[in-house]
């Protein structure tokens, strides 16, 4: 069988007119940065990369050393290539401008450099999430306003998952494609074309310790799942929660399911727990491209017009029929 690498895949996408030369370079650079992050993640205690960095980010979270390292790797890798107008990161408060001595390009890159930070120190799967927008035409450096585009405007989105194997999962607007890192060769190999989220599922993912804080529609939905065969659904559901969004969404993309981080009393004031620009939007694009659905419980995530870089939103995504049910429960409440 012909072995196709990410590089070949991207060249073919360019030939098909789906990605520009600059977007291809961008995705190559992001993939290379993810390889470097993966190396650091896998060294763990040997490289002294575990534990706290001793600083807080703009979200008020204590940064882990790997949050900081992964952020630096992505910023440095992407600064000099000439494909970007600016970047934004979970770990950086404002827009990261391209240093003046490098050429600038037409794309905006957003990322969650290290997703699932609470799992770093216990040697459980973490990831990197990224989203790409076009920089709107205009003069001068991009501003926060330049990034305020709905997720439906994303030209590419994806994540790297650092698990038992390292994978890159990518969409450029035509299906979702998975690549597995061949560590000896140092290249991502195309292993799963056109991932699809099965329409029906018997598996859900939610942090159930927040149950008492959820809104009524979510309490109703989860209670019905937990009643199993005896309840209104008439079947038993299984539950999984890794607490790394990348791992939980990867499971949904691989074998179906529903993933939820809904609004609750703890995160209501902030609008939700997960971040729109570099968590919810890229994952929503991937899930929709794979035939699933993604809403806040009330509206389609990709339709939201952002109002700030670190905006948070409730997230309900995965198998279409389940997401539609949860959304209907919210809308009839
Ligand atoms: P991050 O590590 O990038 O800050 O993201 C953490 C997020 C997400 O990965 C996960 O779904 C969620 O936080 C887990 O939240 P709980 O700790 O409440 O389970
Ligand atoms: Mn964080
Ligand atoms: Mn995250
Ligand atoms: Mn993170």
TrEMBL record:
Binding site for Mg(2+) 2: 112, 115, 279
Domain named Fructose-1-6-bisphosphatase class I N-terminal: residues: 5-192
Matching InterPro entries: FBPase_C_dom, FBPase_class-1, FBPase_N, FBPtase
Record domain Fructose-1-6-bisphosphatase class 1 C-terminal: where: 197-330
Main subcellular location of this protein, as a coarse class: cytoplasm
GO molecular function, one term: magnesium ion binding
Family matches, as Pfam families: FBPase (PF00316), FBPase_C (PF18913)
The record's free-text note on cofactor binding: Binds 2 magnesium ions per subunit.
Pathway annotation from the record: Carbohydrate biosynthesis
Biological processes annotated in GO: fructose 1,6-bisphosphate metabolic process; fructose 6-phosphate metabolic process; fructose metabolic process; gluconeogenesis; sucrose biosynthetic process
Highest taxon of the lineage: Bacteria
Subcellular location: Cytoplasm
Oligomer and partners: Homotetramer.
Annotated family: Belongs to the FBPase class 1 family.
Protein name: Fructose-1,6-bisphosphatase class 1
Native source species: Parazoarcus communis
